[in-house]
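re: that chain from earlier
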Amino acid sequence: MEFFDEAYSGKVFIMSRHSYDDADIVIYGMPMDYTVSFRPGSRFGPNRIREASIGLEEYSPYMDKHLEEINYFDNGDMLLPFGNAARSLEMIEKYVDKLLEDGKFPIGLGGEHLVTWPVIKAMHKKYPDMALIHIDAHADLREEYEGETLSHSTPVRKICDLIGPENVYSFGIRSGMREEFAYAKTSGMTMEKFEVAEPLKKHLPKLAGRHVYVTIDIDVLDPAFAPGTGTAEAGGITSKELLEAIMLIAQSDLKIIGADLVEVAPAYDPSEQTAIAASKFIREILLGWTNKK
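^ sequence. v structure.
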């Protein structure tokens, strides 16, 4: 598999297997943060999540499963052309096309949230009936930001245009323009403000049996739990609630087809609590979602 960075000194997510060809699940990094509007640095997130994973137990008491029970390979970070957002997005789409062609379950590590857009473009080719669960502090429903259509504030609007707003479910939203919230009300998409776990309980039955991709922006957490992110937003949920949400999805009748976790920016969190939390969420996603296709 091409496009991965061998220069990350062997850092891999804990218990990563040694062979891409034999793996059912592939973890990959998308180190892009060129379009952010406040603080850059999320391109360093994937490797810090990997490094933090060394402190995890391989067993999850939430899922009652051990990482040795699943077969996954960490393929490192993609080699993206720094500063060239358009070309980077093309490369990500091509990369995920290949993962799906090879029958892999993709788990992406960002990077800014715009990286989810090319992933969904690739997923939609294989699963035209798909839906999206979007867990985030921000609506990400702008059509452009200061004249730029390729922006971290636009991916969910682009996804609505591609798969239909009625197939987009956003949770935890607490920030955005008035126009974004108006679009959510009139377009047919589902937007639940402020909370995640409780509204998920209401909406997951509606998605039973469907192919669903899940994207998580770490800034859905309150900055008290995740200060290491580019656009921190006060008033968020706790780490415990996000773990509950991950468990609810694991216990549901959804057919999960892939996932990503984005916007970890290590420079703003010397305690590393953000990367530590993100690595635990990835462990639970690995154990709870990857057999739900």
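The first strand starts at residue 25 and ends at 30.
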